[in-house]
């Protein structure tokens, strides 16, 4: 918060100004020489600094983002960035992170189970392999289960390499899940939702000051979600509680701490098989290939603490630490063969129960300074994170047969015996720095780099033989540079170009039994961004090219199939356009289109050169959601909304055969009504035309999923 004090001023009249004397108010005094002394009352001008928080904004646009370090304008961020605001999460009833990311420009969501609890996210053809919580990385995301969106203020997505503040990773991007913060003003929110397939959901949210001086604040958010599915047997029950406290140690220093707990009990579904010739099944979407004892139990606990110290002049010192524990019981009967002409497929049964613990810590300084009357900025910091996976597993074996046209879910459950224990511990730490210089008021130069250390230790013990195998890989002092230029061509419009490096360690070995070099990548991006209509409408356009080199390929000079050399190269290129915000008073919109082309320049085998690299990434991806709130007249309490999501064809590559989804377009429509100032009700219909499509294709054995049929959701929300 900035304050400017008014000063007393003395205005001397001239012949031209003397005619205005009669207009002077009573507090203006005339001196003996005819001059006028005007004593101005003291004026305090208060300006609130930009804040990335989106709740209560009522907008689909967020001018400020916190992905990375600190907060900065999207217009001054030289990367393609999208934000799913709190208003949009509520308007579209997006209760899971995966559902929210399906609405983001250029993002492909790959689900791995029927209930939608296991998901991988892809951008520009690569998996987004790290997720941030309030700007702090917590580790690899492989099939991660995120917390319910009731606890989040917004979801931020940066597309393209994010190695400067991330370390090792794919050249895909970063996802930042920004929590709701404890507020000093008391507010209460609640919601009840009911929908197709016996879906029921309730939410509660309360926050406010806990002491009279408002220095201690708290917030409690809870959600309960119970739903069946369009598939037989499949269902999911979720409970989530999030609590946080914030305490102002001084006027400039705040301590925040909190805990989130979530438990999910679901039926695991691993999708349907396909025919060996690449043909997908044409069966009812309700078909479930599995047993009635299939189990997916998931429990997650996240603890966090952070200290922020605000410096004079707008600087910030911050330390944050997270501990995230996740446990899973995965008990399954799943398809494990191609479908025969008679419709039969083998069922594979097994249990897998991993434990995962993530620790992360980050400390940094965000320091603005002035040169030549223009504000510059430097960020320096260091981070550390570790991920420790341990799991018990039975042997997975084919124990039954199921007919896909007449599934019988009363599959005998085997007598389970654990046969192996395995685990991987990945540790990464590094230092980073970024300098933003403004040599001119309309130009910004951004430069930075990161020095990273990475290591991985893996073990696997087979109980029958009591033999343990171990492997170790590491990478020391890997430097990742970053550079960008931003030019303000108009006060409301900027253009930028950026260059980013990325590295991804590889565990394969060479013929000399040495760890293969890391994959290295670079991206060149250019774009234009605007803040129109006073910042209420945010358009952006970006073009990019990624070259990913040193991919592990078979060593042509070795007869050992486990020997590799770093020789592969992949290129991803395309463009993205997005518009979010308020077109007219009451009319919010979020729409985006992405075109992505990926190909092998040097493939693991020569016959693959020129082939598509990321076959499951559609070349064309379009999203639209808009809502209009009538402003006047008899319809002033009514809102109407709707949208579309469309992707072009994509496929999975088998041995000599493709499994193709023809692409699809689905439409949504919503009507909402404000019952009172504090209560509104909405009815949303999804997949209105009941489009039948495959949302994911994978291969012969399983992991082929239909998308949801037509469905509806009724929601009532209260805010006080």
Task: Name some characteristics of this structure.
mainly beta, single chain, disordered N terminus, 3% helix, 720 residues, 5-stranded mixed sheet, 22-stranded antiparallel β-barrel
Give a description of the structure:
This protein is mainly β. The chain is 3% helix and 58% strand. It is built from 4 helices and 41 strands. It has a 22-stranded antiparallel β-barrel. β31 (564-584) and β32 (587-602) form a beta hairpin. The longest helix has 6 residues, at 86-91. The chain is globular, with a radius of gyration of 28 Å. The protein starts with a strand and ends with a strand.
Short description:
The chain is mostly beta strands and 720 residues long. The protein is 3% helix and 58% strand.
Tally of extended strands?
Answer: 41
Rg value = 28 Å
Shape: globular
Mean pLDDT: 90
Helix proportion:
under 10%
SS element count, helices: 4
| Poorly predicted ranges | 1-49
Strand content: over 45%
How far apart, in Å, are the first and last alpha carbons?
27 Å
What is the makeup of the main sheet? 22 strands, antiparallel, barrel
- Secondary-structure-based class equals mainly beta
Task: Indicate the topology.
Layout: E1 2-5, H1 15-18, E2 28-30, E3 36-38, E4 44-47, E5 64-65, E6 72-73, E7 80-85, H2 86-91, H3 97-101, E8 107-111, E9 119-123, E10 126-127, E11 131-133, E12 136-137, E13 152-159, H4 163-166, E14 173-179, E15 187-195, E16 199-209, E17 216-228, E18 235-248, E19 253-266, E20 295-310, E21 316-335, E22 344-371, E23 374-394, E24 397-403, E25 418-440, E26 443-462, E27 467-490, E28 493-504, E29 519-530, E30 537-554, E31 564-584, E32 587-602, E33 620-629, E34 638-647, E35 650-653, E36 658-661, E37 664-674, E38 679-686, E39 694-696, E40 705-706, E41 711-719
């Amino acid at each position: 918060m900035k304050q400017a004090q008014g000063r007393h001023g003395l205005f001397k009249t001239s012949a031209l100004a003397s005619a205005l004397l009669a207009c002077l108010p009573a507090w203006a005094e005339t001196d003996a020489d005819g001059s006028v002394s005007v004593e101005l009352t003291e004026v305090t001008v208060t300006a609130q600094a930009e804040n990335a928080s989106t709740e209560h904004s009522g907008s689909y646009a967020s001018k400020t983002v916190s992905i990375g370090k600190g907060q900065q304008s999207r217009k001054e961020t030289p990367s393609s960035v999208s934000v799913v605001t709190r208003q949009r999460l509520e308007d579209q009833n997006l209760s899971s992170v995966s559902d929210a990311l399906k609405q983001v420009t250029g993002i492909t969501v790959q689900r791995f189970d029927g209930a939608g609890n296991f998901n991988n996210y892809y951008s520009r053809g690569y998996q987004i392999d790290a997720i941030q919580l309030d700007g702090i990385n917590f580790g690899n995301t492989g099939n991660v289960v995120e917390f319910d969106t009731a606890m989040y203020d917004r979801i931020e997505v940066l597309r393209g390499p994010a190695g400067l503040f991330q370390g090792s990773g794919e050249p895909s991007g970063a996802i930042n899940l920004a929590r709701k913060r404890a507020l000093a003003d008391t507010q209460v929110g609640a919601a009840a939702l009911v929908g197709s397939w016996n879906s029921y959901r309730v939410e509660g949210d309360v926050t406010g000051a806990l002491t009279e001086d408002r220095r201690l604040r708290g917030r409690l958010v809870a959600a309960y979600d119970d739903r069946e599915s369009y598939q037989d047997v499949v269902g999911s029950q979720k409970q989530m509680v999030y609590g946080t406290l914030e305490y102002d140690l001084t006027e400039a220093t705040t301590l925040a701490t909190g805990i989130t707990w979530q438990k999910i009990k679901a039926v695991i579904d691993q999708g349907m098989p396909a025919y060996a010739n690449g043909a997908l099944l044409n069966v009812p979407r309700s078909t479930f290939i599995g047993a009635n004892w299939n189990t997916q139990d998931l429990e997650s606990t996240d603890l966090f603490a952070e200290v922020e110290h605000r410096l004079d002049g707008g600087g910030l010192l911050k330390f944050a630490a997270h501990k995230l524990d996740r446990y899973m019981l995965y008990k399954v009967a799943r398809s494990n063969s191609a479908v025969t002409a008679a419709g039969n497929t083998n069922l594979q049964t097994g249990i897998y129960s991993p434990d995962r613990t993530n620790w992360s810590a980050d400390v940094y300084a965000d320091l603005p300074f002035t040169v030549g009357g223009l504000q510059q900025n430097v960020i320096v910091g260091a981070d550390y994170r570790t991920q420790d996976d341990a799991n018990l597993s039975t042997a997975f074996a084919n124990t039954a047969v199921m007919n896909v046209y007449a599934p019988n879910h009363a599959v005998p459950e085997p007598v389970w015996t654990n046969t192996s224990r395995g685990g991987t511990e990945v540790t990464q730490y590094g230092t980073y720095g970024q300098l933003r210089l403004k040599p001119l008021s309309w130009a910004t130069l951004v430069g930075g780099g990161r020095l990273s250390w990475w290591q991985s230790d893996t073990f696997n013990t087979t109980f029958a033989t009591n033999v343990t195998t171990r492997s170790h890989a590491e990478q020391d002092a890997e430097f990742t540079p970053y550079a960008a230029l931003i030019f303000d061509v108009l006060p409301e419009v900027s253009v930028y170009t950026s260059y980013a490096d990325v590295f991804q360690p590889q565990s394969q070995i060479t013929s000399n039994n040495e760890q293969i070099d890391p994959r290295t990548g670079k991206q060149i991006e250019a774009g234009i961004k605007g803040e129109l209509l006073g910042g209420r409408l945010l358009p952006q356009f970006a073009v990019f090219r990624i070259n990913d080199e040193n991919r592990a390929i078979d060593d042509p000079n070795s007869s050992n199939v486990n020997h590799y050399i770093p020789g592969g190269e992949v290129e991803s290129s395309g463009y993205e356009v997005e518009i979010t915000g308020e077109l007219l008073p009451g009319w919010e919109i979020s729409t985006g289109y992405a075109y992505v082309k990926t190909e092998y320049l040097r493939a693991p085998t020569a016959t693959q050169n020129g082939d598509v690299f990321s076959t499951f990434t559609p070349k064309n991806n379009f999203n639209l959601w808009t809502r209009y709130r009538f402003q006047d007249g008899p319809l002033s309490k009514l809102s109407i909304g709707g949208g579309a999501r469309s992707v072009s064809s994509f496929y999975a590559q088998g041995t000599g055969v493709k499994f193709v989804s023809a692409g699809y377009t689905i439409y949504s429509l919503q009507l909402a009504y404000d019952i009172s100032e504090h209560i509104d009700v909405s009815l949303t219909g999804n997949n209105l035309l009941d489009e039948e499509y495959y949302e994911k294709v994978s291969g012969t054995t399983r992991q082929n999923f239909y998308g949801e049929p037509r469905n509806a959701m009724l929601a009532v929300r209260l805010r006080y």
